[in-house]
Design brief:
It is built from four helices and four strands, in the order ββααβαβα. It has helices at about 20-30, 35-45, 60-70, 100-114, and strands spanning about 5-10, 15-20, 50-55, 75-80. The termini are far apart.
């Protein structure tokens, strides 16, 4: 869908129309080198943690695997039966976090305290 100053892209998960204005595209183009994820990951001098949900409807597991391949000491965790938000939703109204969210938090804590 086109707007006055850009286009809107439908978010597959939330069904929201997300704006992509021309000034956003200009910023991406003018900062291409700084925003290059592969180059940034390869330049890091610290290990990284990549956590991904196997049922992520937004970013494929293959993309997470690609990020891991750019950094030999990266820790890589795939969480079963969870989506892009580790099965969380907004607003969260339950008293307990989803199992997948807790697993992602445990992976993060283990990585940070190792």
């Amino acid at each position: 869908m086109e707007g006055e100053r850009g286009i809107f892209i439908k978010n597959r998960r939330t069904k929201q129309d997300m704006p992509m204005n021309y000034d956003f595209v200009q910023t991406l183009i003018s900062h291409q080198e700084e925003l290059n994820i592969e180059k940034s990951v390869r330049r890091l001098n610290k290990p990284i943690l990549v956590i991904h949900g196997v049922n992520d409807e937004t970013v494929s597991v293959e993309n997470a695997e690609r990020i891991k391949s750019w950094k030999s000491d990266a820790k890589f965790e795939v969480i079963a039966d969870c989506n892009h938000t580790f099965n969380g939703i907004h607003p969260w109204t339950d008293l307990e976090l989803p199992k997948a969210t807790l697993e992602a938090l445990e992976c993060s804590l283990a990585f940070l305290t190792a």
